[in-house]
């Protein structure tokens, strides 16, 4: 048995009236049944190019794994330190692939966050001694003590004056 046919003119009229009333349209356009009346299309995250996504994005469930480097104070997840190392201090901290070194040279206890898009031009970067570092997210204070052997290597081999980021020492002018 065939389904009863609905007169398309009445259907068009009802749809047009419904849309004009809801959207406040004053045009004489009529809508056809083949048009999509649903909400606007949404885009799945896979359609967004990776280059447009922030490289410093941390998912809400991953925030407990954030750590700050005790030398430069950049804030990243434990896994990112393990996979990439510290982008500013890797040549002398050697964090990449070394969980023990990450545990001893980074801290989970830090205060304040600064996001730097252009560290070379930022007055905040100069104030926090971050100018010349890579762009990213930095802590204002990092608690913890750098191991003595690492501190000695930084100061003697690399001729870098280490200033703790916990506020215990101030920079000499």
From TrEMBL:
Alphabetical keyword list: Centromere, Nucleus, Transcription
Domain of life: Eukaryota
UniProt xrefs under InterPro entries: RPABC4/Spt4 (IPR029040), Spt4 (IPR009287), Spt4/RpoE2_Znf (IPR022800), Spt4_sf (IPR038510)
GO biological process, one term: regulation of DNA-templated transcription
Localization in the cell: Chromosome, Centromere; Nucleus
Residue span, Spt4/RpoE2 zinc finger domain: 66-143
GO molecular function: RNA polymerase II complex binding; zinc ion binding
GO cellular component, one term: chromosome, centromeric region
PANTHER family cross-referenced by the UniProt entry: SUPPRESSOR OF TY 4, TRANSCRIPTION ELONGATION FACTOR SPT4
Entry's family note: Belongs to the SPT4 family.
Protein name in the entry: Transcription elongation factor SPT4
């Amino acid at each position: 048995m065939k389904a009863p046919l609905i007169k398309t003119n009445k259907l068009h009229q009802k749809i047009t009236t419904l849309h004009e009333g809801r959207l406040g349209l004053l045009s004489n356009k009529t809508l056809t049944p083949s048009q999509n009346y649903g909400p606007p299309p949404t885009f799945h995250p896979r359609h967004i190019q990776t280059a447009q996504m922030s490289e410093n994005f941390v998912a809400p469930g991953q925030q407990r794994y954030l750590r700050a480097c005790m030398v430069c104070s950049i804030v990243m997840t434990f896994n990112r330190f393990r996979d990439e190392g510290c982008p500013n201090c890797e040549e002398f901290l050697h964090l990449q692939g070394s969980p023990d070194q990450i545990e001893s040279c980074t801290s989970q206890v830090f205060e304040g966050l600064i996001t730097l898009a252009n560290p070379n031009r930022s007055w905040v970067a100069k104030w926090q001694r971050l100018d010349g570092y890579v762009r990213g997210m930095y802590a204002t204070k990092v608690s913890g003590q750098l191991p003595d052997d690492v501190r000695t290597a930084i100061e003697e081999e690399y001729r870098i004056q280490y200033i703790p980021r916990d506020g215990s020492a101030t920079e000499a002018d």
